[in-house]
Amino acid sequence: MKVSRTSRLNGEYQKEISAIIRRLKDRNAALKGLISVTETDVAPDLKTAYVYVSIYGLNEAETKLAFDALQDCAGYIRHELSQVMR
């Protein structure tokens, strides 16, 4: 079975972004609960990628706060990912 390049990159992006978020949770108090990267979808030209996450918090407010904090950290995550994916 032949595996395409984008499917391999999807798996690598998912693994690396999960590791970055795990390290980021130590520094950002707003990132509470269980955060997991469920899927990534990298475009064939590698210019864009969609990252799907699931967040399980104690309540809806904590989940919303964690998602907002994750969106605020998107630039940092993008930067760290560019350092790893050379």
Briefly, what is this?
The protein has helices at 5-27, 60-72, 74-84, and strands at 34-42, 49-56. It has 86 residues and is α+β, with helices and mostly antiparallel strands.
Can you lay out the helices and strands and say which pair or pack?
Blueprint: H1 5-27, E1 34-42, E2 49-56, H2 60-72, H3 74-84
Antiparallel strand pairs: 1-2
Helix pairs in contact: 1-3
Shape: elongated
Segments where pLDDT lies below 50 for 5+ residues? none
Strand order of the largest sheet: 1-2
SS class: alpha+beta
Could you characterize the architecture of this molecule?
55% of the residues lie in helices and 20% in strands. It has helices spanning 5-27, 60-72, 74-84, and strands at 34-42, 49-56. The model has no long low-confidence stretch (mean pLDDT 92). The chain has 86 residues and is of the alpha+beta class. Helix 1 (5-27) crosses helix 3 (74-84).
Descriptive terms for the model:
86 residues; alpha+beta; 2 strands; 20% strand; elongated
